[in-house]
Design brief:
Number of helices: 4
CATH superfamily: Ferritin, core subunit, four-helix bundle
CATH topology: Ferritin
CATH class: Mainly Alpha
Shape: elongated
Oligomer: single chain
CATH architecture: Up-down Bundle
Distance between the termini: 49 Å
Radius of gyration: 16 Å
Largest sheet: none
């Protein structure tokens, strides 16, 4: 098995765990400030990210590789919702790029199972990216205060 592919799977695992932690922290901030709609969205995203992490761990084990979740990357938690969205958007774009790289490595290694798994997760990540882009557009169009009124 390609060591580059195994390393990429482990890198994606760290990204998913980091994303889950970031979503949980943002959910708590939204709960504190009464932004119920955003709270629910962050909680749902945290669950999706954890499901992705679990799937990656399972795939690594099935490949007889050692999952190395290590420590998630530091989470930048910001009370400013607009900066949260921008930060999440940047992280999501990087994650999508990582999945594209992983798919390419799986194709090169002839690993159909990993390719299919990564393509399935990529579709969900692209949906999250689209949602974040929509949130950023709403903040820009409505202004932060108008956006936050909608989230209460």
């Amino acid at each position: 098995m390609s060591q580059n592919l195994i390393q990429t799977l482990n890198d994606l695992l760290v990204n998913e765990l980091t994303a889950s932690n970031r979503c949980l922290a943002h959910a708590e901030l939204c709960d504190e400030h009464g932004y119920g709609r955003l709270l629910e969205a962050h909680e749902r995203r945290a669950q999706e990210e954890m499901a992705h992490a679990r799937a990656l761990i399972g795939r690594l084990i099935s490949l007889r590789a050692r999952p190395q979740p290590a420590r998630p990357d530091p989470v930048a938690v910001d009370v400013d919702i607009a900066r949260q969205i921008r930060g999440d958007l940047q992280a999501s774009e990087a994650t999508v790029a990582g999945y594209h790289q992983g798919i390419q490595l799986a194709v090169e290694a002839g690993d159909q199972g990993t390719r299919e798994l990564l393509e399935n997760i990529l579709r969900e990540e692209q949906e999250q990216l689209s949602w974040l882009q929509s949130q950023a557009n709403q903040v820009e169009r409505l202004g932060l205060q108008g956006y936050l009124r909608q989230q209460a």
